[in-house]
GatB/YqeY domain-containing protein
Amino acid sequence: MILLDWLNQDMKLAMKSKNKLELSVIRMVKASIQNEQIKLGHDLSEEDSLTVLNRELKQRKDSLHEFEQAGREDLAIRQREEIAILHKYLPEQLTEEEVRQIVTETIAETGASQKSDMGKVMGAIMPKVKGKADGSVINRLVLESLS
C-alpha cells in the first residue's frame, strides 16, 4: 500500500477512535510529506516518502535523547510513543547480521580500506538499505570494518 494512502486510512481510524496522539503524529508526517512535494514541485515516489518518514523518526529520536539527558521523562515518554507509531509505517528492519553482510559486500565493491574511505562506503550503502536500517548502526558497523 502506498504510504500516503496508508496514512490517510489510519488517520480516519484515529479520528473515529479519538486517539489524539496517533492522529497528531499522522498529521505531522502527512504535512511533512506534502511540504516536501511542494518543495520538489512533483508527487513523491514511495522511496521519497520513506525518506521523509525517516527524517521525522530521526528528529524524534534526537528529541528523545535530549529529553533523557535533561531528565524530562514526561516529554521522553511522549517521544517514545510517537516513535512507536512511526515504526509502524517503516518497512521491515534488517537484522544487524544482515546489515553487517551488506557493509562487508559494499566495502569489497568500493575497494575501501581505511577510515578516510568511510564517506564513499556510506554513500554506496545507504541506497541499498533505505528505510530498512538505522543510519547509526550502519555508521558503527562501517567504522568497525574499516578499523
